[in-house]
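User: Quick one: structure for sequence A, then sequence B.

Assistant: Sequence A:
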Amino acid sequence: MRSAGRRRTAALLLVPLVTALALLVPSFDADGPDARTMGPALSSDAAFTHPGVLVDRDQLDALREHVTAGRQPWLKAYLAMRDSVYGSYRYRAEPHETVVCPAGDLRGRGCAEERADALAAYTQALLFTVTGERRHAEKARQIMDAWSATLRRHTGEKAALQAGWTGSVWARAAEIVRHTPGAGWPAARVRGFEDMLRTVHLPQVTSSDPDFTGTWDLVATDAVISVAVFLEDRRAFDHALERFRERVPAYFYLEEDGPVPLTVPGSGVDGPQRMASYWFGQTTYRDGVSQETCRSFRHVGASLAATAHIAETAWHQGVDLYGGSEDRLAAALALHARHELGERAPEWLCGGRVERNLGPHLEVALHHLEERRGRPVPAAHELAARARPAGTDDLFTAWETLTHAGAPAG
């Protein structure tokens, strides 16, 4: 399989001028070694790169090299992953035919089990990458095969969010196992897993609502692009690109947007009162503020992670989504990391009271900004360094110090 680190799109897509202007993405030198498609879709003659969901072959090779050489922080990150509940050889899947996820914090039925099992499959896939031990691949396959043979539907008010959290992680695990020599996943079982993602997860996460909170929509879009790559589904892939380009500018504010935030096309958020309510009481808009800053930093962290996951997966497929979003990501990382580190919130920001808990969500965005672009984000860098190795949020983010800290630029 071709690595995203070696694969490059030969030239920019030719797109109509109106479409190009709407993309909010700076142009690249098409003759340069890092030229990527900037149009609204994947080129019709471009092959999907595998593995290419969040991580590519160069990144997987690099993390294995770091760990086997005993380098930090990768060795510490690997040991934390290996010794987690998800890394156990004795891990047992608990598949459900119907996963019921109600609103709020109610437990539901099968929700926590599916999330845990997806993370376990991904963990075992990464362990197989590092160690080459076949039993890790077998464990990942056992978990995925158990769910694909059982799961038929997600229901409840949070069904789409559940499908988003798990769809992205299932696809990450499946990409690695399917496209790593020696994993031994039979073709018939692969097709069964494809069917599960196509018929159970994808319908939930492709139905969009412009008035969703940003976290919900970005998590769903992360799942769409991840599943699309695994299935080689161009229509779903292009759908994810479009949703990203609509949602991200409406979620992370920059002063260049004007006196009030942008909105997703078709949104019912209009007028100052509805805008303030949608932004959880925030009425002063400055660089880096997000739609959910005054809800909780935990939601902002998840949105930063999902945004970076989507852009990173697109990057591995030769499409640059980062370009039009780097200023927003950098501003949001800088603002929230400063306050996460203890800086007092000013009165204009959430009335001077913020709920801190960004979580293990910074590594992918930092990797792109600092290591690809050479763009320092000091507060976020300090916060990530203090928290390393980043573990898992038990939802859809896992082991990103291992996979992305110091990863090849690609």
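Sequence B:
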Amino acid sequence: MPKQLELTLYGLVSFLLCHLSDAQSISRKPQYGVEAGTYLSTAASNPFWIRSNQYGEVPLKSRGFTLRAQVRKEYDSLAGKKFSYGYGARAVLNVGSTNQVLLTELYGKVRYGAFELYAGRRRELVGLADSVLSIGSYIWSGNALPIPKVQVSLPNYTPILKNGLIAVKGNFAHGWFGKGDWIQNYYLHQKSLYIRLGKPDWRFKFHGGFNHQVQWGGTLLYDRVDRGVKITRYGSDLESYLYVITSKTLYSDDFKVENGKASAEGGNRVGNHLGTFDIGLEYEDARTKWFMYRQSIYEDGSLFYLNNISDGLLGLSFKRKQATSGILRVVVEYLHTSSQGGSVSSGRATADELRGNDDYFNNGRYIDGWTYNGQTIGTPFIMPLRYTTGLPQNLAANRNLIVNNRVNAVTIGVQSRVKKFDLVTRISMSKNLGNYDVPLSFTQTSVQQHIAFPVQKYTLNAIVAYDNAGVLEQNLGLGLLVKRYF
């Protein structure tokens, strides 16, 4: 994110916080929190289930200390309040094998009726999945540092009929990736739309929708030549933005290469497009809640031709609504990304029906791929080479390249409570096949046991995690964290 844009964005957040403080409809007080802890392991890295889906706060390298502080103000929950505002800020200091200061959240938000506008960094998940025990949505899992953006949304299902039979939610956002290893000052376009069929008091409800992510624009930090013309920047004008929003193809008889315009990239579309189509079925009674969901992957035309229909995330969530002890929630998920439409890639001279070799999360123009601040934005099972600590690091010259994106993984998560102890147990087993250009065959098992319990005004958290030798190095790790909220 350019420095001037960053200052402008954070200035907008500050303006919102300062000038909305006198609003009459606000009554909920800010909440503050501090955390301190350490991470230790038998290997040089933190185990998979200690560092994954932590919004970039836990570094790859182990043996260090962490200190965190946050403030958050949520919306007024009183009924009948049309307007309200909120904000949040969270800072992380890591010292040891990795020394860094992170601002993992800084945002301001305003709500009017069902609509919300926010600006800044904020923790989010995108897609239909269990919000507590999921391995994370395929496309946006909470694995990477949040991307700064401006977004307007319907964050919660909102009825469009008086009887509540049909309800919708969705978002439209513009974000900033900033500077990567290969491109700087490039952007995020994001939108989603989800529909729920079923009245609020019905036991069965059907969910369906899609999300659309695009990396676009930016100035190249490497040499690229297309049709004999050197490309220095990708399209960032209004015409390019319209191509991004609509996903319209660039192919035409008068195709041109012009820097800064929609045709500058020499590819099928402006930017790197990816996302999922999601469906879900929910059942709820007085005691239990079940949710089955499926996320289907698209990055080019493979899904349209059903070539990669076997790929996606399939999940089943079970929750005991009235329970206060014993097993409270169970989630079973299966991630399948090994098809990718087959090994034959598509090109202008290739039949559309042969689209394949999708090479998930990689892109020929945005070489950093679907990553931010060095970490995968989507599912943590598809990670850059430097995070695959059990693989030879000479598999690619660029250690930030994703060489293992053909993965089939099963994960079981259990949330339970025994007296004053809150427990989360996870076990994941995966088959890692590399990609079609770099075939591999590694099995991987990773387990986690998280225990949290109160001690006076504090909450103590202990995480024990283990990885066997596979795509990750054999590793036993421990995370200790003391939290205080007030």
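The first strand starts at residue 31 and ends at 41. Helices lie at 3-19, 48-51, 238-246.

User: Thanks, that's what I needed.
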